[in-house]
Amino acid sequence: MQPPRCCLLLILLYLFLLSGTWATLQGTFTFWLLHTSTFQNTSFVDTEAIGLLEDIELGILDKHTWDIHFCQPWVRPALPRRQWDTLDNMLKVYLRNFNLLMNQGAIQKDVPYPFVAQSMTGCKLYPNRTSRVFLYVGYNGQDFLSFNTDSSTWTLSQDTDLARYVRDVLQNETALAEAVTDLLNYICVNTLEMFLNYGRAALERQELPVATVFARTPSPHQLLLVCHVTAFYPRPISVAWLRDGHEVPPGPQLNTSPVLPNADLTYQLSSVLAVAPQDGHSYACRVRHRSLGTRSLLVPWGNSQLLLITGLVAGLLGAVALAALMLLCLWRRRKHQGTEESESRSSILSKEA
């Protein structure tokens, strides 16, 4: 069962009339639906789905009721209720047919249970307003099928009995291919443009990175300099080590972790540089991020810390010297005052005599 073509045409007309009225953001943006179905056996499937604009959660699917729960206050007003109802119906029809087809294929081709099937569907909008759409299907974590909207055909990503069975069934559903093509080429892109307008504040959010440099000593002959950067948003960031002011090139001595999410919807990563203890160089961690503008965050280590300690010692010695000088002046003043008082008393005694 597929959604009526008239519903799709109404949505296309509505989005076409309104798409030119939205102010757009600069940059490349992706709108996608990620879905996972876990097939425990022939009669039980656990289905989950989430909609994303970049890394912003738009809505999640309740796996028990299949109702959509909106994650951002601006998502629901982005489309009129009628359009949301139609898209909601299309999503449920898609998931139901997806699970049915994968189950039938597993039974036909004697595929062992349990297994996991996934799909990633969406569109990407570029700064020059061109777009790219995609639909990928996965099986047990591996590429399985993909859909080509230019030819409305399904392509094998792995040559297995199950993949060929599902591909052949889908290829015979011409109405489904046309509906998917319309959904991706028109509805997805125009919906993305409207989300860009309604979600402008969320997309323009910026959080400054906080960087800390510290050291670990796994052995007496090795020093690991760690630059931990956290609390930044958006996700793209550049972290590099500088040796005597020059960037350390990639190599076995340099290891940078992937960007990982924090619980507060910011990100973190760590960059580790292996050096020889007391190698005589100065080191600094340099962080570049959109929230910093044209500036860079520079956190020093190495000789720069030695200079800091030397400066502190020099300052302390200077303070001690100044205190000693003040005590010497005070002693001399008191000595001078004592001499004057002694001479004054001697003069008085001489006059009295």
Question: Can you characterise this structure?
Answer:
The chain is α+β, with helices and mostly antiparallel strands and 353 residues long. It folds into two domains: 5-203, MHC class I-like antigen recognition-like (Murine Class I Major Histocompatibility Complex, H2-DB, Chain A, domain 1, 2-Layer Sandwich), CATH 3.30.500.10; 210-303, Immunoglobulins (Immunoglobulin-like, Sandwich). 38% of the residues lie in helices and 34% in strands. It contains six helices and 17 strands. The protein has helices at 5-19, 81-108, 161-172, 174-198, 200-203, 303-352, and strands at 29-41, 44-53, 56-61, 68-70, 115-125, 131-139, 142-148, 153-156, 210-219, 222-232, 238-243, 246-247, 254-256, 260-261, 267-275, 282-288, 297-302. The protein has an eight-stranded antiparallel β-sheet, with helices on one face. A hairpin with a 2-residue loop joins strand 6 and strand 7 (142-148). Helix 1 runs parallel beside helix 4 and helix 2 crosses helix 3 (161-172). The N and C termini lie far apart (135 Å). The relative contact order is 0.10. The model is unreliable at 1-23 and 303-317 (pLDDT under 50).
Short description:
The chain is α+β, with helices and mostly antiparallel strands. The protein has 6 helices and 17 strands.
What CATH calls the topology of the largest domain is: Murine Class I Major Histocompatibility Complex, H2-DB, Chain A, domain 1
The pLDDT mean sits at 84
Number of domains: 2
Give me the count of strands.
Answer: 17
Task: Supply Rg.
Answer: 35 Å
CATH superfamily of the largest domain: MHC class I-like antigen recognition-like
As residue ranges, the low-confidence spans are 1-23, 303-317
Strand/helix succession: HEEEEHEEEEHHHEEEEEEEEEH
N→C terminal distance: 135 Å
Helix content: 25-40%
Q: CATH architecture of the largest domain, please?
A: 2-Layer Sandwich
Q: What gross morphology would you assign? A: elongated
Q: Which CATH class of the largest domain is shown? A: Alpha Beta
| Structural class by sheet pairing and helices | alpha+beta
